[in-house]
Amino acid sequence: MASEGGKTSSEYITHHLQNLQVCPTDNGWVWNDCTGNFLGINVDSIFFAVFLGIGLSWLFYRVAKNATVKNPSKTQAVVELLVDFVDTSVRETFHGENKLIAPLAITLLCWVFLMNLMDLVPVDWLPSLAHAGGIEYLKVVPTTDPNITFGMSISVFILIIYYSIKIKGVGGFFVGELMMNPLNPKDLGVPKIFWPFVMAFNFILESVALLAKPLSLSLRLFGNLYAGELMFILIALLGLWQLPLHFGWAVFHILIITLQAYIFMILTIVYLSQAHEHH
Amino acid sequence: MDINLTLIGQTIAMIVFVWFCMKFVWPPIVGIIEERQTQIADGLAAAEKGTRALDDARGKVDEMVGDARTQARQIIDQANQRANAIVEEARNDANQERARILASAQSEVEQEVHRARDELRGQVATVAIAGAEKILAREIDANAHRELLDQLAREI
Fold it and tell me: In what order do the strands lie in the sheet with A41-42?
């Protein structure tokens, strides 16, 4: 594969890691020349993410619509197993009443899993197909695009802020949670004059901790999948040796795919349940 | 690898999918699961109730069988007693009958003996008279000598 289209190894790798982009410029909409343009869109990432999301939603909707109590189909049994699993995970971690968290968790779990699963499609199949169809670049795994992972983790972050303020109030969140922890000036017996310094110190610490949540959430997923994808690309360069290595890495990657989807879901639940808790 | 509008697009997509799941997927499936759980729990409770009812019925049956057995024993006892009584009665009747028949037979025999004896006596008297006639060779008036003849017959 290394010699496909007369490319060198490094060209092959860069080619595979390049998103199919479109962006508006002074000369109208331009394909694939969008570096640094914030208005650009990674068409392939969005396409596969939405495509998989629609497929997932369609499957779930069909199961939900045809679900029966007495005579569940096999698909229904599998979906129920998933729902029950997510429901148990949510109940174990989150003790409040919230109609959003469980559906959010199952959507994230299955959607992220499916997006990760695109990694197991041999690296050259879809790009070659697209190339034959006149599309130059195609990156098939949406979760190897930081836009996608950050898009999800920032949504979760907004929910964290929203529920924190909703449950604890603006003062309870900004002052009580971000400024009175971890060093509580009241407990430490600090004179009132020095409270602002302690609170500012706390605020810096806590803000970093808070911002680390969405950052770690998205970077963990992105990093794992990007590295996995890169491994597949590198293995694809090895000629005949790639066959056993591909198989081995794919088997190992199944674990990573599932685990990362699970971690993303569980951490979302944990962060949101923390947002609901009073200190 | 730049951050661009894709991020916003993905956020919107995620909101839509999560909303869809929250609205159309999660509630019916959880509802179905919970309904099934209730049904299973109800079924198990009913089964337990049935088992308990069966135990109760079994106890009742045992009781009834015991009662029936006691009654049967009583009836058999009564029947035995009655049979014994009947046999006893029959035996008594038979004994009485035997005694009666025996008595009547005895009296008949006695009567027969008497009659035979009387007849014999009469015949003896006749013989005696005939003998006496022969001996005396003269007519003896049987009527005139009846008393004498009767006495003679009695002495035989």
Answer: A28-31, A21-25, A41-42
